[in-house]
Write a structure and sequence with these properties.
This protein is an alpha/beta fold. Helix content is about 40%, strand content about 20%. InterPro entries: AAA+_ATPase (IPR003593), ABC_tran_C (IPR032524), ABC_transporter-like_ATP-bd (IPR003439), ABC_transporter-like_CS (IPR017871), ABCF_ATPase (IPR051309), P-loop_NTPase (IPR027417), Val-tRNA_synth_C_sf (IPR037118).
């Protein structure tokens, strides 16, 4: 493969820190490289040096003659006086850009709800970010260097971006470097991973799943080093292998040894134990929404929502911006009353929300972390039964990535990710039994996301998650719903089902299309027709009803199990076996649902 750019002996340091020490690496034609590492270890600095935006203290970067490198910065660099059209296509006449299929696809994929003739200064932060990305992707580049490109994109936008980058160049042409904490995106797009840590850049073959697999082996060979990090990586690998085994089929290296590492890894969560503890803390009644409707004037946001939250339920919520996700969360936490219908809450329910704002920290910004932590609870219990573990606030801070030195740091001097983790700690120590996480992955690197997921695995309560991070959503929740066309819709097929529904036009908002801009092509019609089509549609509806009914039975059985005499081992075993049979039937029905959906979509 032809060489595009390379770095030799790169050294970079700032007054208080050496970031890189003698780093040598290269990018060839066809490389799709994901750059991962802890916040502050130098991911963005590395990419800036390779793109020619930052001069190293020593060493050099060489590029092929005439190489065109396109860069997406984290900072907003748009001219606020430009119109959206001019920011994206410049002064090119309409017949030129409108006749370019690639430009039309970029505009349709990123700017369908952005006014084409609007002025940049009038746009929201998320819209400006998408305009910046569209302007870059509309150009011709040999190498793209993208710094957090999925920020401000929803699940649908992230899926579109992944598809665009996979098809942008021929397989052995072009080069991509991307810094992102979106692990699904890394797996979907990247063929290599660079881990930035301890002043070096360590290359791995494959995307995120392959990187984790290789890192487990590396850590196994150096078991005395970073033991905690190894355990988290092993647990995450178990999730990857059990939840999405196809992801690890891409690497060329042997995986037998790595598979042996996870042979004895237990399930991610003790579901029955956590369910039992959740019932003990919450009782049978949590929060029930009965025919709940919310309108703001003539704008109906939610209509006829029927939802019963069970003790220990773990649910992800999907939906485009403006669909009504925040309104639904407000109904759950009690900050909003329905326009009609009712919301019923159990007597012991205590709801806490990790919002996108840094709530709870404003009054303590000048205090060191240890001073604030010293006023909190002296201990907190995680897990259930024999796996229950009592932890102090300091132990929790360590588990969330705080070093002992950082405990003396004033809160205002913490990074965004550190403040985010401290905010979560405050919420957990208040011991709520219903936890709402609204975009919790903001500002967290991949290692901290794994630590957060590990912490939530042992949290006994009802969990509601809104996130555009597909990997995180699928990892910590057991089922997903979507807010679409003012209704709450169960997604037996998870995120994939949501994307299929959106592609077919379900849940579309009345966003303004760009002037003369392209409209996304409709999905291919089903190959079924006549009686065959009607039979498939009828069976699909029947399967959906059966799944919903069985899911309710499983939840009810688990609640009853929590009240069963725990000394009656024979009875417990019989009930658990019955629950297992119900869950197996649900899995079979979900597979049938997927088959029918694919058949109907053609």
């Amino acid at each position: 493969m032809a060489h595009l750019l390379g770095a030799e002996g790169l050294h970079l340091e700032f007054p208080t820190k050496v970031v890189f020490d003698s780093v040598t690496l290269g990018v060839n034609e066809g490389d799709r490289i994901g750059i991962v590492g802890r916040n502050g270890d130098g991911k963005s600095s590395l990419m800036a040096m390779l793109a020619g935006r930052l001069e190293p203290i020593a060493g050099k970067v060489t590029t092929r003659r005439g190489l065109r490198i396109g860069v997406l910065d984290q900072a907003d660099t748009l001219d606020p006086t430009l119109t959206v059209a001019r920011a994206v296509v410049g002064d090119a006449p309409e017949h030129e850009w409108a006749g370019d299929p690639k430009v039309r696809d970029v505009i349709a994929g990123l700017l369908a709800d952005v006014p084409w003739d609007g002025v940049v200064v009038d746009l929201s932060g998320g819209q400006r970010r998408r305009v910046s990305l569209a302007a870059l992707l509309a150009g011709e580049w040999d190498v793209l260097a993208l710094d957090e490109p999925t920020n401000h994109l929803d699940v649908e936008g992230i899926t579109w971006l992944a598809g665009h980058l996979k098809q942008r160049w021929a397989p052995n042409a072009g080069g991509l470097m991307v810094v992102t904490h979106d692990r699904w995106f890394l797996d979907e797009v990247c063929t290599a991973t660079w881990e930035v840590h301890d002043r070096i850049v360590e290359p791995f073959e494959g995307g995120y799943a392959a990187y984790i697999l290789q890192r487990v082996e590396r850590d196994r060979q150096a078991a005395a080093i970073e033991q905690r990090r190894q355990n988290l990586a092993r647990k995450e690998l178990a999730w990857l292998r059990r939840g999405a085994p196809a992801r690890t089929s891409k690497p060329k290296f042997r995986i037998d040894a790595a598979n042996a590492l996870i042979a004895d890894v237990p399930p991610l969560r003790d579901t029955v134990g956590l369910q039992s503890l959740a019932v003990a803390r919450l009782g049978k009644d949590v929060i029930d929404l009965h025919d709940a409707c919310v309108s703001y004037g003539d704008n109906e946001v939610l209509r006829g929502v029927e939802w019963r939250l069970a003790p220990g339920e773990r649910t992800g919520i999907l939906g485009v911006n403006g669909a009504g996700k925040s309104t639904l969360l407000k109904l759950i936490d009690g900050s909003l009353a329905p326009t009609s219908g009712r919301v019923k809450r159990g007597k012991t329910v205590q709801v806490a929300t990790l919002s996108q704002q840094m709530g709870g920290l404003e009054e303590h910004l000048d205090e060191p972390v240890r001073v604030m932590v010293g006023r909190l609870r002296t201990s907190y219990t995680f897990g259930a039964g024999s796996k229950a573990q009592e932890m102090t606030p300091s132990m929790l801070l360590e588990r969330l990535g705080f070093s002992s030195a950082q405990l003396s740091t004033p809160i205002r001097d913490l990074s965004g990710g550190q403040q985010r983790r401290l905010q979560l700690l405050l919420i957990l120590l208040a011991q709520p039994n219903v936890l709402i996480l609204d975009e919790p992955t903001n500002d967290l690197d991949t290692d901290m996301l794994a630590a957060l997921e590990d912490l939530l695995d042992s949290w006994p309560g009802t969990l509601i998650v809104v996130s555009h991070d597909r990997y995180f959503l699928e990892r910590v929740t057991d089922q997903q719903y979507a807010v679409m066309d003012a209704h709450l819709r169960h997604l037996p097929g998870g995120v994939d089902e949501y994307l299929r529904l959106r592609a077919s036009g379900v849940g579309s908002t009345s966003g303004k299309q760009p002037a003369s801009g392209p409209v996304k092509a409709a999905p291919p019609a089903s190959g079924l027709a006549g009686a065959e089509l009607r039979a498939a549609q009828k069976e699909l509806a029947s399967v959906e009803r059966r799944i919903a009914k069985l899911t309710d039975q499983v939840n009810a059985s688990k609640m009853a199990l929590a009240e069963h005499d725990h000394t009656d081992y024979t009875g417990l075993a019989t009930k658990m076996a019955a629950i297992g049979e119900l869950e197996s039937e649900v899995e079979e029905l979900e597979l049938r649902w997927l088959d029918l959906s694919e058949a109907l979509e053609g």
